[in-house]
Amino acid sequence: MGQKVNPIANRLGIIKGWDSNWYGGNNYGDILLEDSKIRQYLNTRLAKASVSRIVIERTLKLVTITICTARPGIIIGKGGQEVDKLKEELMKITDKDIQINIFEIKKPELDAVIVANNVARQIEGKIAYRRAVKMAIASTMRMGAEGIKIQVSGRLNGAEMARSEMYKEGRTPLHTFRADIDYAQAEALTKVGLIGIKVWICRGEIYGKKDLAPSFATSKENRPNGGGNRGGNRPEGGGRGGRRRRNKNNA
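^ that's the sequence the OP posted. Answer follows.
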């Protein structure tokens, strides 16, 4: 069963929550379509911002959109100008008040959507698919993932007959519900046709009860100063060469 079903859908209500959080009532279909339009628009408009996930929460008059991204600076813009522009554009789609939160993904190598899109862009840039996949696997395992599996399908290397190839490292237990498995699909448009990329990343196991409501503890609202200090405060002696300097002082 675990091999046939989308791993995220398979874990909904167990260890994974929903990306849309609202009560539809009689106009459920209209709100669902609106959500779809918002996601489609944001994914197209922020294609270069490494967007991983868009979470939509609704009250009667307010739509709260949380954008999970590896490059928040592109979305925020200088002094938060881009966020204000984005808010105005989304208000035209929904005719409701919009609040945009931006959540920075600290480890993009452990996010299946970002990894899949990176591999797809490299294949489109005429990098050999084997090299792109192996580099992605190496960087993900280096960041502490328990396992990763990548499948590429299509006319690989321009071959006449389409085929699928799978590359694995570590463990990806799809049947284990407590295993935190992130999954994504991406497409690379090449001269010989579309190449599909599927990525499974196992980030460990979750024990005990998990709060399924979307909680972004470190999410930064669109502040006038551009959403907080990027890069964060380094510990004393951190940064490049920090350890070397500290050793000299101790000596």
